[in-house]
Amino acid sequence: MIGRALLIWSSTVVVAVNVPSLVGFIDKGGKPAKTIEAAALPASTPVEDGRNYVLKANEQGHFAGRFRINGKPVDSLIDTGATFVTLSETTARNLGYGGNELNFRYEMVTANGKVKAARIGLKSVEIGTVSVRNVDAMVIRGKDLPYPLIGMSFLKKLTGYRADKDELKLVN
Fold first, then answer.
1. CA–CA separation, 26 and 86 (whole Å)
2. 113-119: long-range contacts at Cβ-Cβ below 8 A with a sequence spacing of 24 or more?
3. How far is 55 from 163, CA to CA, in rounded Å?
4. Overall pTM > 0.85
5. Do 64 and 78 touch, CB atoms closer than 8 A?
6. How far apart are CA 51 and CA 105, in angstroms?
7. Is 104 helix (H, G, I), strand (E, B) or coil?
8. Does residue 157 carry a pLDDT above 90?
9. Residue 139 CB: number of other CB atoms within 10 A?
């Protein structure tokens, strides 16, 4: 019971903290203000030793990149304030999750109000040469999240990560 309460509380904090950072990506009608296409993402440069990957900040100061989640390409934003990798229901379904896997039994409070969420396990999350297996994620019901957030459930499994000015270095 305490574990469930902590999960709900931490998920609520994650969403409450992160949704305002996405306001620049949503117009007043609730639709994405600007679609990030793969070609529009800032160039990400792998470091030569094969264990590191460096992302450049985009115009809004976010670290965005084309990740592979369960082997499928997904444009995402890294968010060190997010406890979990967080996906929209649409993204989760596109990755093959559905039926009993999406049990929306958790309630989260966001800047847009209350939403239902499901907890899932991702087989893998990768970018460049950096790969992490068995990553916990939350799926938000509906389409309130225009881009997946790559949170601490991914980052804490790395050997390390470091933000320096306009670069984020991921160490496998």
1. 17
2. 115/15, 115/140, 115/141, 115/142, 115/144, 116/140, 116/141, 117/11, 117/141, 118/92, 119/7, 119/84
3. 9
4. no
5. yes
6. 38
7. coil
8. yes
9. 28
Tens digits of residue pLDDT in 39-95: 455 555 555 467 899 999 998 899 999 999 999 999 999 999 888 999 999 999 999
Read off the tokens for 142: 């509906």
Give me the DSSP letters along 143-169: S--SS-EE-HHHHTTSSEEEEETTEEE
Residue 84 burial by Cβ neighbours in a 10 Å radius (0-12, 13-18, 19+)? buried
Q: Which amino acid is at 140?
A: I
Cβ atoms of 88 and 158 closer than 8 Å: no
Contact criterion met (CB below 8 Å) for 62 and 130: no
- Map tokens 């082997």 to a residue: 71
| Proportion of the chain in helix, strand, coil states, percent, rounded to 5 | 25, 40, 35
Q: From 170, 168, 162, select the one nearest 132 (Cα to Cα).
A: 170
